[in-house]
Amino acid sequence: MSGYKYKPSSYHSPQRVWDEIAGEYLDRWVYQHDFSVTLPDNRIITVEAGFEYDKGSIPGFLQNYLPRDDAHSVIAFLIHDWLYTKGTIEGKPITKKEADQIFYDLLRHAGMRYTKAKAIYLAVRLGGRGVF
Questions:
Q1: Backbone phi, then psi, for 12, in 5-degree steps?
Q2: How far apart are alpha carbons 42 and 14 in whole angstroms?
Q3: How big is the chain by its Cα radius of gyration, in Å?
Q4: Do residues 114 and 69 make contact, with C-beta atoms less than 8 angstroms apart?
Q5: Distance between CA atoms of 57 and 130, rounded to whole angstroms?
Q6: Over the chain, what HEC string results?
Q7: Which residues pair with 31 in a beta bridge?
């Protein structure tokens, strides 16, 4: 868990996607800035401006337990969705398990308690979908 480096102050709230045709907001968000995290092995994950994601696929009945804007999870959700979309770090393929482990480590790095982070990690391991 230690060894992850990023500047929380460089994280900016994403903008919700507006559907012009339907005249309503979608459950999608656009991150409008580049954001980087350095891993303990010094690889760097850089989310590029314009990345569209869902902030975490949390079932409705669990959103009180883990809101998608929780201070412990916003960066982890961003990085995890990026990894699921790209499937690589620095151009080299990664596994779903590695993406999920980085997600868990970022939750813990941000101060989320062990039991909550572990429960979320297990849910992602069982149900997470993406390029993997």
A1: -120, 145
A2: 26
A3: 14
A4: no
A5: 11
A6: CCCCECCHHHCCCCEEEEECCCCEEEEEEEECCCEEEECCCCCEEEECCCEEECCCCCCHHHCCCCCCCCCCCHHHHHHHHHHHHHCEECCEECCHHHHHHHHHHHHHHCCCCHHHHHHHHHHHHHHCCCCC
A7: 51
Residue 111 C-beta-side C-alpha neighbours within 13 Å: 5
| Angle value at C-alpha 16, between 57 and 75, nearest 5 degrees | 55
* pLDDT tens-place string over residues 29-55: 999 999 999 999 999 999 999 999 988
φ/ψ of 53, rounded to 5, equals -150, 180
CA quadruple 91, 96, 98, 99: dihedral sign: positive
| pTM for this model (two decimals) | 0.89
Q: How many CB atoms lie within 10 A of CB 116?
A: 16
